[in-house]
Structures are given as structure tokens and as C-alpha cells.
Amino acid sequence: QVQLVESGGGLVQPGGSLRLSCAASGSIFSISAMGWSRQAPGKQRESIALITSGDSTNYADSVKGRFTISRDNANNTAYLQMNNLQPEDTAVYYCYARIRKPTNISPSDYWGQGTQVTVSS
Asked: What's 26's DSSP letter?
């Protein structure tokens, strides 16, 4: 099985920073893309950052300039550096990966269980 494990969430004051990590493990041949989404109470799920195997990145307008996504291909790990956090950033953050297994010709999408980020004074 493929598993995504997130870490780094927690409580931070407005203006503070956090770095989230996401490690993919299991039966993996290659990872073509990794990303992050979030869901706040009463709001729709929002995709906020994506990075491809070629290190091309894409950000939602709500986080552009404040969040940075990166990846460590050797360890199948993605990171989300979050700076200048605001209360509206409070949400459960989910890791995403598009993964090709050794026995499958086509990739599949996977999501982690999520990690809570709370921004409050």
C-alpha cells in the first residue's frame, strides 16, 4: 500500500511560520507531482500548492507569496513552508501525491489524513 504521512501542524500566532512535511512510502515506482490542499470549517476544500517532478510549482492566490512548496525526490518527501500565517489560514491541511506503482502503467492519486494548523492570538 501507499501511505502519505503528514507532520508539522500545530498552533501558531498571526504572523508566525510553520513548515509541514509529507513523506510518501510503500510500493512506489515514481511520483510525478505532490501538493497540498486545505479545508477550513464551513468552507470548501481548496488546493493551495503543487510541485511536479520537474520542480514546476503552482500556488493558489490566497497563499501566493507566503507559502512555498518544495520536495526531496530522494526521500519521496514534500514540504510546505508557511510564512506570515493569518487566522484565515486555520484549516486541516492535506498532502497529495500522484504516484505510479511498479505494477501499474497509469498513476493514481493519493491523499494523507491531514494535519491541523491553527492560527490564533
From this structure: S
